[in-house]
Amino acid sequence: MSFTEYAEKSLREKGYKLTKPRRQVLEAIEKAEGPMSPYDIGKMMEGKGRHLDQVTIYRVINLLCSLNLVHKVFSRGGYVRCDLQEEEGCHRFLVCRGCGHLQEYRDEALCRQESQVAQKLGFQAEHHVTESSGLCKDCQG
Amino acid sequence: MSFTEYAEKSLREKGYKLTKPRRQVLEAIEKAEGPMSPYDIGKMMEGKGRHLDQVTIYRVINLLCSLNLVHKVFSRGGYVRCDLQEEEGCHRFLVCRGCGHLQEYRDEALCRQESQVAQKLGFQAEHHVTESSGLCKDCQG
DNA sequence: GTTGGTGCAAAGGATTTGCAACTTG
DNA sequence: CAAGTTGCAAATCCTTTGCACCAAC
Question: Domains of chain B, with CATH numbers?
Fold first, then answer.
C-alpha cells in the first residue's frame, strides 16, 4: 500500500473527511525528496499553479502529525512522510550530514533501554524522539 | 564552577572575545527557568531596559550552541544552558509533559547501543539527539 | 442537512544577509 | 592596531487566531 493510500485509509477510518487540500498535501509530502515545511508546501503548490491556503496546510500537517502519518524532523526543520506505517514503537531518524539523506527506523530494544534509563532517574518516559547525525553508506570513506 | 564562569572560560580558551552581548546572553540563559528563544531573550532584555540587537543574540546563541555550552530543546523550541559541562557523550533530555520540567542526562551505554543499531543499517553515527517525553517524579500518580 | 473543514484577513513572531562602525585583546 | 564582533536596515520566512463560507459524508 502506498503512503497516500495508507494515509487516506487512516483518515477515513478515524472519521476524518477526505478533502481536496488533504489529498494535495499528502501528495506533496509523498513526492518530496526531503523534509518540507508547511511554507515550502505552499510555495511548491503556488509554483505548480495550484493554490492552497497557508493556514490550511498548517492544519493538515498538524492533523497528519497527530495521526503519525508524517513526522517532524527536528534537526532539519520540516516534515516527512512516515515510512514505517503501522509498525509500533518510537520512530527514529538517521540524518546524513553529507548528502542530507534521511532514514527512518525503529528498534524496540533501544526504546526499552531508553525508558529504563529514564526510570532510574525517576522519570516515566512515554515517547522518545531520536535523531542521529553522521554519515550514510554512500558518504562514508 | 558556575555555568557562566565555565562558559566564559571556554570562550576565552577557544580564542573568542568576551564581549558585553555575550556576557548578557550568558547571564540570561543562566537565569532562565526553561528554554528561551533568541527572540525571548531580546524581549526579556528590553523589559529590563537593556537593549540587545536581535541579530546579535542569534549569533551569540549559535556560537554557544556550536561550543555545546547551550543546547536547543527541539520539542520545546528554545535553548537552555548545558548542565553537564565537560562530560563527554551525547546529552539527552527528559521533558515532563505535566509541569514542563527539563532534565539533562547522559548515558554511555545508550549512546553506544544507538550507534550500533545505526551501524547495522550501514550508517556511521557521530552524534545523537534524544528527547523523551513523559512524566517527571512529581507529576506521576 | 450537519458537521467538520477551508479560505481570508490580519497580526505578530522568528530568522537571515550584507555592510558600516565599533570594541576587545 | 587588527581581527573579530556588533548594530542596523531590510527582506523574507513562519505561525497563530477568529470568523464567515463551503463541501464531504
Answer: 3-81 (1.10.10.10), 91-140 (3.30.1490.190)
